[in-house]
């Protein structure tokens, strides 16, 4: 396993309650692993904790990366081990050029330009348009997200955490992003995909359902998605959108059983 | 005049700003130019539609730059005020006139790479006529010894329907003691954009900049943006003033400053005043450290906190292109 999260508990800053409650799951190397759950279930907290942000210290539990206990490590150490995060709303650091921003995590300084161009191409940004641009207010939200993704990919990390990469994007763009995720996977990078959208999760091999801070199930993604719909009581939605017309192949009896288990008719 | 002798140190000193001022030497490039080496005029070249005159005085020069009516120049007029000595006094009295319907850029480079007790003073007057598009850009380098005392004062009149863009960069090297005052008077329908960036790098650096815009004409508009970093005991004061003194004028002042290291001081004083009920003037100011989220984002790319901070300073003080 590339990533192992064991009994991870994250308290609120005042320590009065928990955001993540003894969460455990594993991520296989080379896979796309989705973390799904409704708003407020602790998905972004999990992403920040794995990345090692200062305000996200576990009160209990461990995180292992390639067998190494990274729990006490700082964000920079984790990044240098091969973990990075593409942020849900990346900051607009006005004044930096796009190539400069992408170059920050590139280790192969000798082939910097080629590496930057390669990263831009992976996220479908034309190098001829973006090699001379600055990060400023004229960059759209979608372009900024792609630049963030390019910077993460350029690092050639082993694990790339994508925190809600779909937020604020329209449907056509989301389709494109799903293709980009598959391209990243083909480059031998493992993706931990944080999302609350079932359609973007379709690219995932595996998933974990977070529900009010608990990890309820880790399994193949369709089964996790089905459990999510059952928890939310969305049977018709589930049948209509996820498991019909070229969606996931799960028979209706199985769907009915899962819904019954969750106390939903 | 293609073989002008000009101190190599001054020529090279602005390279960190990505400026190669050899491109501006007489005989090079197409623009008008005036090169001052301490108190001696080393080169002067004008072009069609631009009159350049300079006269040496005891401690410097009086210089006139006149863009003649209707002239539109693509190459900037270049003024280089260099001093390759540790001490001395350089005084500049420029008068810059853009007649009606002109389109021009004047770039001034003030470089004092060896300054250690050097005084540079400027007392400038700018007259921008009607329907002009005029940019004035000033880039400073004061060496690495915090050894300069620099005190420029500028008065700018911007005529009806004109756009005046002012940029001032003091972001490389150690500034020393710097006191700058700019007063801009904006007439009817004019637009003023003023962009100031400064870096007080150590305890012997003190930078005080007062940038004032007086919106005197109906529908005049302005934005002042002041950005500064004070580090390791450096001190920066940004004083941005906008007065709305005419109907339907609109102005905004923005100051953002970052404080790094012990003993550093940043101060921002946005001052706004409106005396016409249809005018609108606003300000915003922020002082302190870089947002933690920005640092986290860069550290997630493998940078240490110090490296991330350096990148953010670089971005904040980046010259506009």
Q: What is the total domain count of chain A?
A: 2
Low-confidence stretches of chain B: none
How many structural domains are formed by the residues of chain B? Answer: 2
First and last CA, distance of chain A: 37 Å
Give the tally of β-strands of chain B: 19
Alpha-beta content class of chain A: alpha/beta
* General shape of chain B: globular
Largest sheet of chain A: 6 strands, mixed
How far do the termini of chain B sit from each other? Answer: 30 Å
CATH homologous superfamily title of the largest domain in chain A = P-loop containing nucleotide triphosphate hydrolases
- How large is the share of residues in beta strands of chain B? over 45%
- Overall pLDDT of chain B: 93
How many strand segments of chain A? 10
The biggest sheet of chain B, with number of strands, parallel, antiparallel or mixed sense and barrel status, is: 10 strands, mixed
Structural class of chain B: mainly beta
Helix content of chain B: under 10%
Note the total helix count of chain B: 3
CATH architecture of the largest domain in chain A: 3-Layer(aba) Sandwich
The CATH class of the largest domain in chain A: Alpha Beta
Please characterize this protein's 3D structure.
The complex is a heterodimer of chains A (265) and B (321). Chain A is an alpha/beta fold and 265 residues long. In chain A, the strands form two sheets. A six-stranded mixed beta sheet of chain A has the order 6-7-8-3-9-10, sandwiched between helices. In chain A, strands 2-1-4-5 form a four-stranded antiparallel beta sheet, covered by helices on one side. The radius of gyration of chain A is 19 Å and the shape is globular. Chain A contains eleven helices and ten strands. In chain A, helix 4 crosses helix 6 (141-154). Chain A has two domains: 1-82 and 157-220, Rossmann fold (3-Layer(aba) Sandwich), CATH 3.40.50; 91-155, no CATH class. In chain A, strand 4 (60-65) and strand 5 (68-69) form a beta hairpin. With 321 residues, chain B is mainly beta. Chain B has helices at 8-13, 292-299, 305-316; strands at 33-37, 40-45, 50-57, 60-67, 77-82, 88-98, 103-111, 116-128, 133-141, 147-158, 163-172, 177-186, 191-200, 206-215, 221-231, 235-244, 250-260, 265-274, 280-288. Chain B has a ten-stranded mixed beta sheet, with no helix packed on it. In chain B, helix 2 packs across helix 3 (305-316). Classes of the chains: A alpha/beta (265), B mainly beta (321). The A-B interface holds A 51, 53-54, 74-76, 79-80, 84-85, 87, 90-91, 93-96, 104-105, 107, 134-135, 151-152, 155 and B 291-294, 296-305, 311-312, 314-318, 321.
């Amino acid at each position: 396993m590339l990533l192992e999260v064991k009994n991870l508990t994250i308290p609120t800053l005042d320590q009065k309650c928990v955001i993540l409650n003894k969460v455990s799951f594993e991520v296989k190397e080379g896979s796309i692993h989705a973390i799904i759950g409704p708003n407020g279930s602790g998905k972004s907290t999990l992403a920040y904790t794995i990345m090692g942000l200062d305000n996200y210290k576990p009160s209990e539990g461990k995180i292992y990366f390639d067998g190494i206990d990274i729990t006490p490590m700082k964000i920079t150490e984790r990044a240098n081990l091969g973990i990075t995060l593409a942020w849900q709303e990346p900051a607009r650091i006005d004044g930096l050029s796009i190539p400069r921003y992408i170059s920050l995590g590139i280790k192969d300084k000798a082939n910097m330009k080629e590496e930057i161009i390669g990263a831009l191409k992976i996220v479908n940004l034309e190098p001829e348009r973006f090699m001379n641009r600055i990060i400023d207010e004229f960059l759209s939200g979608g372009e900024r997200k792609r630049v963030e993704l390019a910077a993460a990919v350029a690092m050639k990390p082993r694990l790339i955490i994508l925190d809600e990469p779909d937020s604020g994007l329209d449907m056509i763009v989301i389709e494109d992003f799903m293709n980009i995720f598959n391209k990243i996977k083909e480059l031998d990078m493992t993706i931990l995909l944080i999302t609350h959208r079932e359609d973007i999760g379709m690219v995932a091999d595996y998933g974990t359902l977070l529900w009010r801070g608990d990890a309820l199930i880790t399994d193949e993604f369709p089964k996790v998605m089905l459990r999510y719909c059952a928890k939310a009581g969305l049977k018709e939605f589930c049948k209509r959108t996820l498991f019909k017309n070229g969606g996931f192949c799960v028979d209706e009896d199985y769907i009915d059983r899962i819904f019954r288990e969750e106390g939903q008719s | 005049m293609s073989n002008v002798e000009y101190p190599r140190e001054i020529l090279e000193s602005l390279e960190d700003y990505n400026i190669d001022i050899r491109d501006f030497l007489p005989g090079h490039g197409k623009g008008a130019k005036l090169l001052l080496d301490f108190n001696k005029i080393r080169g002067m070249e004008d072009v069609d539609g631009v009159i350049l005159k300079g006269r040496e005085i005891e401690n410097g020069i009086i210089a006139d730059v006149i863009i003649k009516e209707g002239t539109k120049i693509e190459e900037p007029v270049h003024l280089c005020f260099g001093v390759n000595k540790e001490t001395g006094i350089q005084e500049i009295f420029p008068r810059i006139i853009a007649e009606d319907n002109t389109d021009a850029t004047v770039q001034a480079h003030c470089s004092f790479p060896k300054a250690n007790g050097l005084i540079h003073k400027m007392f400038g007057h700018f007259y921008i006529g009607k329907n002009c598009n005029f940019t004035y850009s000033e880039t400073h380098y004061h060496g690495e010894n915090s050894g300069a005392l620099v005190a420029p004062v500028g008065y700018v009149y911007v005529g009806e329907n004109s756009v005046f863009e002012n940029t001032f960069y003091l972001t490389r090297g150690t500034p020393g003691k710097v006191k700058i005052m700019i007063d801009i008077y904006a007439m009817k329908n004019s637009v003023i954009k003023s962009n100031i960036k400064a870096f007080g790098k150590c305890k012997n650096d003190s930078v005080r900049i007062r940038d004032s815009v007086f919106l005197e004409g109906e529908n005049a508009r302005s934005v002042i943006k002041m950005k500064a970093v004070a580090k390791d005991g450096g001190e920066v004061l940004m004083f941005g003033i906008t007065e709305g003194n005419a109907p339907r004028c609109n102005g905004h002042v923005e100051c953002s400053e970052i404080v790094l290291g012990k003993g550093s001081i940043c101060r921002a004083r946005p001052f706004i005043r409106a005396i016409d009920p249809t005018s609108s003037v606003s300000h915003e100011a922020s002082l302190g450290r870089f947002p933690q989220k920005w640092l986290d984002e860069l550290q997630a790319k493998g940078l240490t906190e110090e490296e991330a901070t350096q990148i953010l300073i670089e971005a904040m003080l980046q010259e506009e292109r």
